[in-house]
Structure formats: structure tokens, C-alpha cells
């Protein structure tokens, strides 16, 4: 097989997984199932746009029987193009390994073979062979940083020719950003159910009741020194069943962001690159930093470390612990 062009995939899950290059063999590598499914959709869509009669076959490398790959790749009666999707490479058996290595030496014409590996070193011999041949490798890694999730939301709206403002993106990531498939579904709902520029009010209407969104409203008020609003929002959240743990997590994340930008100079874009944050997060943290001194930040960090342990089992009353943390933080901040 002549070497296929290498993919320029970035681990951050950029645009490339939305537009997978067609090649005789393609590798999807990594644990993020949502990105892998989107990459598969890209391949399927391209092949079926070329020929709607493309035949799809799915195989499981962990349950593979010797000879299956050659059998399904062989030409059919009417010579339709074929797409073969093989999952479970992380638990592949020896039969699949041997057949796959042999297939790479003489791939079938009019066949696209997509190999799906959830990560790790299992099947290193096959992975090395794929790399040596220059097979396109699409990184399917989780989007862990808010900056990556922000880029994801922005891209979802751009692809659908819709606009969403920066505050709305921030609110949406805060509300449903823990799970990428949920974040994608939220984008789809907002695109379908709204018109014009999507605003933070639109996001709040659909997702404002989510635990993450409530937690960040508490954190925003406390870090701005607005104790009454922070406490009333906190007590409402606790009364409606919100667990103290995500509330403390939101406070801790916001305090860490302030600590990162505290006393730093430079443009928002430069600091965002250096700190692994989005430019709007840098701007927000800088605004919040205006309420804080160095000693006050130390106080906030200490009380949050204590509170984190308390809400995770060290205290008999985690509700009291998180209320005390909110009071200490709001009092330490300068209004």
C-alpha cells in the first residue's frame, strides 16, 4: 500500500476529526467515544456521497475469527465500494492482529478500513505498522480544558451557520460541559429552538437549573464580594438538592483561575496560551482579581482546601462547611 497522507490531528480535538481524510486505512485512536463517532460519521458521509451503495460491515477485534477480514473485504457480486469498521482494537485477539498485518501489505481495492482503538499500548505491533505506512491517525481524546470545550461549542455553531456570544458559550460550558455528547446535544437544541444570536439568557432558559450552572453563579457572587447574593443562591441550590461537592469545585476552579492571572501582565490571548485558558476566562479572572489581594487569595485557597475535605466525608455537616466557605470568601473579597 502506498503511504497514506498523515493526519494533522491535534490532541485538543480540533477541526480535523470533523473532516477525516479518506484513505485505504484510517485509525481512530483514543478513549473519547463521541469524537470517534463523529469521525466515523465523517467517513461514512464522504463515502456515501461518492457512492450511496457503499456497503458497511462492522467487526469486533476482540471477538474476531481468523479469515473474517479477507472475507468481508473481497469483491461483492456488483463490486460496490465497502466500508469496514473494526472496533475493540484495544482488546484485539491474535487472529485479528495477524490478519490485519497481512491486510496492510495488500489492501483490497475500493475498500476503506477504519480501525478503532480506545487507547493504550495493546496491539503495539499493529500500531507501529500503521504509523510506518503513514496511515491517517485521528486522535479521539477527551476535551478536558474549558478552552477546548469553548472551541468545540464555537465550531458547532459556526458549522450550522449560527452565532453565539461569548457569555453564552461560557454559560453553556459551565452548565453541561462535563460530558462532550451532552454538550453537543445542548448545542443542537439551542440551534434548533432559537433564532438569531444565542445569548446567555437563552442558555439560562434551557440549562440554568443544571448543577454546574448554579455552582458557578454562587462562585461568581462570592468572588465578587457579594455575600448576600452568594448565600441566597447557595441556600436555594442546597434546598433543591444540589450536592455541596460541585459547589466547592466551582469555587475552587474560579479561585485557581484568579491565582493564575494575579499580578501577571500581557495580552489575554498570550496569557490564555500560557495558562491553558480561553481569552474570555482570562478576562473574567482578571476582573475578579480586582476584588482580591495576595493575602486574601491565600485565605480563600486555605478555606477551600479544608472545605473540600469536609464535604467529602471529614465533616458531619457538609452544608455548614460550604456555607462557611462562601462567607469567608465573600468577606475576604473587596466589593
UniProtKB/TrEMBL annotation:
Residues 213-327 form the DNA polymerase III delta subunit-like C-terminal domain. It comes from the Bacteria. It holds the Pfam family DNA_pol3_delta_C. Keywords: DNA replication, DNA-directed DNA polymerase, Nucleotidyltransferase, Transferase. GO terms for cellular component: DNA polymerase III complex. Its EC number is 2.7.7.7. GO terms for molecular function: DNA binding; DNA-directed DNA polymerase activity. Belongs to the DNA polymerase HolA subunit family. This is DNA-directed DNA polymerase. It comes from Arthrobacter psychrochitiniphilus.
Amino acid at each position: 500500500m502506498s503511504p497514506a497522507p498523515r493526519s494533522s490531528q491535534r490532541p485538543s480535538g480540533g477541526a480535523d476529526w470533523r473532516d477525516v481524510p479518506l484513505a485505504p486505512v484510517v485509525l481512530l485512536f483514543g478513549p473519547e467515544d463521541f469524537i470517534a463517532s463523529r469521525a466515523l460519521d465523517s467517513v461514512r458521509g464522504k463515502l456515501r456521497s461518492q457512492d450511496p451503495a457503499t456497503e458497511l460491515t462492522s467487526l469486533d477485534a476482540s471477538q474476531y475469527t481468523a479469515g473474517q477480514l479477507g472475507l468481508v473485504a473481497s469483491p461483492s457480486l456488483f463490486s460496490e465500494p465497502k466500508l469496514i469498521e473494526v472496533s475493540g482494537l484495544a482488546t484485539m485477539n491474535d487472529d485479528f492482529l495477524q490478519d490485519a498485518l497481512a491486510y496492510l501489505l495488500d489492501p483490497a481495492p475500493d475498500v476503506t478500513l477504519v480501525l478503532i482503538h480506545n487507547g493504550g499500548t495493546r496491539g503495539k505491533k499493529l500500531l507501529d505498522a500503521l504509523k510506518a505506512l503513514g496511515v491517517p491517525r485521528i486522535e479521539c481524546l477527551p476535551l478536558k480544558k474549558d478552552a477546548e470545550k469553548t472551541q468545540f461549542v464555537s465550531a458547532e455553531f459556526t458549522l450550522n451557520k449560527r452565532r453565539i456570544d461569548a457569555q453564552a458559550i461560557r454559560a453553556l460550558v459551565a452548565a453541561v460541559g462535563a460530558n462532550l455528547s451532552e454538550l453537543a446535544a445542548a448545542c443542537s437544541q439551542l440551534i434548533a429552538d432559537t433564532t438569531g444570536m444565542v445569548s446567555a439568557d437563552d442558555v439560562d432558559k434551557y440549562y440554568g437549573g443544571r448543577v454546574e450552572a448554579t455552582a458557578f453563579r454562587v462562585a461568581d457572587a462570592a468572588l465578587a464580594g457579594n455575600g448576600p447574593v452568594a448565600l441566597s443562591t447557595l441556600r436555594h441550590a442546597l434546598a433543591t438538592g444540589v450536592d455541596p461537592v460541585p459547589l466547592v469545585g466551582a469555587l475552587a476552579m474560579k479561585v485557581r483561575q484568579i491565582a493564575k492571572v494575579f499580578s501577571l501582565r500581557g495580552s489575554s490571548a498570550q496569557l490564555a496560551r500560557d495558562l491553558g485558558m480561553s481569552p474570555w476566562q482570562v478576562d473574567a479572572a482578571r476582573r475578579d482579581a480586582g476584588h482580591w489581594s495576595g493575602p486574601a487569595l491565600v485565605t480563600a485557597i486555605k478555606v477551600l482546601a479544608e472545605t473540600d475535605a469536609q464535604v467529602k466525608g471529614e465533616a458531619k455537616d457538609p452544608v455548614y462547611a460550604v456555607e462557611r466557605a462562601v462567607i469567608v470568601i465573600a468577606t475576604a473579597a473587596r466589593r
